[in-house]
Amino acid sequence: MFIDKAKVYVKGGDGGDGIVAFRREKYVPEGGPAGGDGGKGGDVIFRVDEGLRTLMDFRYQRHFKAERGVKGRNKSQHGANADNMIVRIPPGTVIIDDDTQEVLADLTRHGQQIVVARGGRGGRGNVRFATPSNPAPELAEHGEEGQERWIVLELKVMADVGLVGFPSVGKSTLLSVVSAAQPKIGAYHFTTITPNLGVVDVSEGRSFVMADLPGLIEGAHEGVGLGHEFLRHVERTRVIIHVVDMAGSEGRDPFDDWLKINEELKLYNAELENRPQIVAANKMDMPEAAEHLEKFRKQVKEVRPDLEIMPISSLTRQGIQELLYRTADLLDQIPEAPVIDEVTDLNERKIYKLAKEEEQDFVIRRENEDFVVESVKIEKMMKRMQLNSHDAILKLARTLRHMGVDDELRKRGAKDGTIVRIGDFEFEFVEGSSYY
Ligand SMILES: Nc1nc2c(ncn2[C@@H]2O[C@H](COP(=O)(O)OP(=O)(O)OP(=O)(O)O)[C@@H](O)[C@H]2O)c(=O)[nH]1
Ligand SMILES: [Mg+2]
């Protein structure tokens, strides 16, 4: 079964408490305050993983709670920040706040991410409250509570390939023989009423997602039949496999069918006319099929000489491998779905996303006066590096500059001394310098 909706509860970790402590060192009987701040609670982050295709995992796990920050410690030591909780989601997932029904993000590309529940800040330790009049305060703060809410996830059908055609031409049968999907198959029209997805493994390392859609009929573009609401799925596919019944069942004419379906696609969205298309001339096992195919080829040649027509039979599996290889080759030549430029999170803050295909994917968020940079790439790099050496920090700074993080921070108003956080690290933005 293909699940395309899930509701989950997310909660950011609470911040660690700040503590009250005093220095107790040898020969220093009256030590000053030394209670450190608590660490920040972890964020719950949804991140796109291109290896996932469904929301199936969310059937089993519906609660996602990040860890709380560690309490402050004595000797003015900061408690550790909790790790963020990364939850993997498939490309094409729309993230909606269940309360407000606001779309928080529509994530399509590997590595794109959004913080869905922010961890609380750590409480301040008593060292922070010392004043000349009260040099030894017995005061510390509790950690802030992490954000919590219910989120609805919706997965749009992000198929690479869409099967289109009249009812009963054999779309579902084709999907069933090329993938593990088990769509309903029937000799009557409109057997398929919702799209089915299947992952097609062509050969080692080559696979694509195929969507079997409800049959289209004349007038589908204006809502006749079931097709209309599914035509938008076709819009998102990169290759169309147009299944045509070569047996001419029910007295149909294959060429006429082909023209009509193309017309519907075009009327729905003119761009679909130019979408790469392969005709799967199906039911070639039937007696009349060969004759029909010959005629069909001639007729098509007159209007679209370049169109590829591949004879198949889902019943005998004739021509199926060839069709899959050809489809995979075609997909290799066509770029992935376009990248979205901007998404908005709950607090109506614009999250910056670069539209370019380069590895520049990072998100800059404001947190009061501070900036937070979120980036899979940078965080990965930082995990690898020992950031206590000067060289390592220089290297990081160079990367940030090359990625355009500096420029973007500046554009967003970062000034000398502005705090910039990336993962667990905190830097000061230093204008004109090569690093923070
Ligand atoms: N002989 C023959 N019959 C086929 C072939 N492929 C499908 N069929 C039959 O055609 C009928 C319709 O098949 P489906 O796969 O349900 O057709 P569909 O295009 O998905 O139909 P809808 O979901 O109603 O749009 C079924 O009876 C299948 O067994 C084929 O290659 N050869
Ligand atoms: Mg079907």
Could you explain how this protein is built, in words?
This protein has 436 residues and is an alpha/beta fold. The protein has 3 domains: 1-155, Spo0b-associated Gtp-binding Protein, Chain: A, CATH 2.70.210; 171-333, P-loop containing nucleotide triphosphate hydrolases (Rossmann fold), CATH 3.40.50; 357-428, GTP-binding protein OBG, C-terminal domain (GMP Synthetase, Chain A, domain 3, 2-Layer Sandwich). 21% of the residues lie in helices and 24% in strands. The protein contains 8 helices and 20 strands. A 6-stranded mixed β-sheet has the order 10-11-9-12-13-14, sandwiched between helices. A 5-stranded mixed β-sheet has the order 3-1-8-5-6, with no helix packed on it. It has a 4-stranded mixed β-sheet with strand order 17-18-19-20. Helix 4 links the parallel strand 13 and strand 14. The longest helix has 15 residues, at 254-268. The chain is elongated. The two termini are 50 Å apart. The structure holds guanosine-5'-triphosphate (GTP) and magnesium ion. Guanosine-5'-triphosphate binds at residues 165, 167-173, 185-187, 189-192, 214-215, 282-283, 285-286, 313-315.
CATH architecture of the largest domain: 3-Layer(aba) Sandwich
Strand content: 15-25%
Domains, number? 3
**Any idea what the shape is?**
elongated
The secondary-structure element order is EEEEEEEEEHEEHEHEHEHEEEEHHHEE
Helix count equals 8
Summarize the amount of helix as a percent range: 10-25%
| Quaternary organisation | single chain
The tally of beta strands, per DSSP, is 20
The assigned structural class equals: alpha/beta
Radius of gyration: 29 Å
Distance between the termini: 50 Å
CATH superfamily of the largest domain: P-loop containing nucleotide triphosphate hydrolases
The CATH topology of the largest domain is what?
Answer: Rossmann fold
Strand order, biggest sheet? 10-11-9-12-13-14
Bound molecules: guanosine-5'-triphosphate, magnesium ion
Major sheet details: 6 strands, mixed
Unreliable parts: 338-359
Class of the largest domain, according to the CATH hierarchy? Alpha Beta
Mean pLDDT: 84
